[in-house]
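Troubleshooting log. The previous structure file for this entry was overwritten by mistake, so regenerating from the original sequence record. Sequence copied from the archived sheet and checked twice against the printout by T.R.
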Amino acid sequence: MPTNKNPFDTATMLEGIRRWVEIETPTDTPDQVNKLASLVANHYRDLPVTLERVAGVNGCGDHLVARSAWGQDKPGILVLSHLDTVHPMGFIERLPFRIDGDSAFGPGIYDMKGGAYIAHHAFRRLCETAERSPLGITHMFTSDEEIGSPTSRELIEAEGRKAKYVLVTEPARDGGKIVTGRKGVGRFEVFIKGVPAHAGTRPEDGRSAIRELANVIHALEAMNDLKRGVSVNVGVVRGGTRPNVTPEEAYAEVDLRVPSIADSDEFVAKILGLTSKTEGVTVKVTGELNRPPYEKSNSGASLYEHAKGLAAELGFELIDTHTGGGSDGNFTAAHTGTLDGLGVDGKGAHTHTEQLYISSLEPRARLLYRLYQTLR
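Regenerated output below.
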C-alpha cells in the first residue's frame, strides 16, 4: 500500500515492477514465466476478480486472465499484456535492476513489464474506490508474445471479439507516443533442392541450390518498397556441405512487414509464388502472415481521441504514431477499437540498455485509471 496519500506513488509502483523484472521470463523457459504468473495471480487474491489460468502448451508458459467481478454480462474493456521477454536466462547479471536518475533498468522492464504492472496498479486503485467502472475489465497476461503469440492468439482473438475496447500495454514510442497502427508481419521459409556433383571433376553435372537461392534473394529484395511501407528481409540463410561439392540444398528465412490488408494479400502471394529459374532445381516456400496489419479504424481513432482528452486533463499531450513492429493488438484491431502503446515510456527494448523513464509511471498509470473509469 502507498505510504503517502498519492495512490499513484512512483516508489510503490517501481518496487512492484522491480519484483516482476527480477523474475527472468524468456519465452522458452515456461517454469520461469509460470513463476511470474503465480506472483501476478497473488496480486489479485484480495481483489474482486475471478482468475482463470490457461495451462501452457508447446513449450510455452501459462496464460493468466483476471476478470472484474462486475460488468462481465456485456462487452467491456480487454487489457492485453505479456509476461515473456526476449532476454535469455542470466541476462539480469548483465542488466541488473538499477536506478540511474530518471531511468530504471532491467530485462523486459520497458517491453513490457512496466506497462503490464501499471495497468494492474491502476485496476487495484479502481477497486479501492466506492464506484465501479461502467464496463467490466478483463486483464490478460500471456506467455508467448515475443515469438508471435502462437499459443495465445486464439484466446486473444476470442476475448477481443467479446470486448468493446482493447487496451494494449506495449511500451510507448518516441517520448510517450501512443500506437494507433502497426504493420502486419509475415514469416516464411524457403527450401531449395539442387543436384550435387564434384565441383572439380564433374561441375557440369551439378545444379547449385545456393546459386538459385541468390536468384530468390534478388527477387525478395526487389519487393522492398519503403514508400509504400513494405519491407522484405532475408534474415537467415544456410546451404551446402563442402567447398568442393556443388550444393544440393539451401535454405532461407524471410520476414515481411506490410501496412495494409491489401498489401498483405499482394505480397504474401508474391512470396509464396516464387519459382526456380534453373532447370533441375526446385524452390518451395512455406509460411503466412502471422500478425494481420493493425490499421487505424474509426473505432480506434475515436478511442484515441478520448484518451487524448483524458491525457490533456492530466496535463500531458498524447500524440499517436504508426509502427513497424507487431503486437497482440494486431489480432484485435480489425474488429474491436484498439489502443496500443499504453505502457511506460523509455528506450532500448530488446537490448542491454533497456530502461523505462520513472517520470512516465504516474501519468501513464493515471491515464489507464481514467480510461477504466470513463469508457462506456
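The two ends are 29 Å apart (CA to CA). Archived copy saved in two places this time.
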